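Form 7-S
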Amino acid sequence: MMIASTSGGTAAGIIVLVLVVLMVILLARSVRVIQQGFNGVVKRFGQFHSVKSPGIAFLVPFADQMARVDVREVPRTGDRQDVITKDNVGVMVSATIFSQVIDPKSALFAVSNFELAIFQLAQTALRAVFGGLTLDEALSERERINTELQQHMDPITEKWGVRCNRIEVVDIVPPTSVLQAMSLQKEAEQHKRAAILTSEGQKQAAINAAEGQKQAAILAAEGEKQARVRLAEGEKEATILRAQGKQEALARRAQGKADAITSVYSAILERNLTPELLAVLQLETLTQVAKSDNAKLVVPYEAVGLLGATQALKDALSSPARDDSSSD
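Output:
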């Protein structure tokens, strides 16, 4: 009896233990936790069923299987690739691809390994893009290369549920001989630029000197012009003043003559006009005419009478003397 009860208890314990293990296995297979940045793709009996978002996902045990897909942007740096440019120069190129899964279903079922496929596609795109560029274009137009690489890859990667956000060319290494030639070319360019800058400086200096001489000549001409204008104005003012002085002198002389004539005329009016006084006036007039600068002197007819009047005046002046002497 004791043996039977012991064996029954052991069997019951084993059954309970098996049930507990089964419950744990079922719970582990039916409940999954999806981390942020990932999506879960559920397959039921080998076929696509659904896509689970981050969080707790419940599955049907033994029927469902879930694969996690990273939907974050992932940088993938490729190895250096040998490519040939349009001008037949071999260069080593490496690029980094920033891709992101936007459709987990297509990423799992449209291609067997989308990461390897993107890597192989990037190598093909590098060869295609660099094959259409010369070495100088490849070294100077990085932005154009990045754009063309992305244009080559986008139509294909979208079918795989992957989006290429951007592609950056990390390094372009030409052959050593080309690098030496480029160094010599760069040195020659520097010498050329230095010579051009020197000549430009000399040219600018000559232009500045010519401009300075031009400005100096203009200023000198302006100064001479102003001096001449001021000198002319001074001469003009001096001439005006001299003319005004002459006019004033003439006016004063005329006024004096007028005053003299007035005085004479008054004297004539006050006294009786005698032939002797008239002869004196005529004689003064003839004296003024004789003082002129003329080379010829025209004596009017009346001058004969003037000489007679002068003789009469002389006799008149001498007659009182004679009377005085006779009286004595």
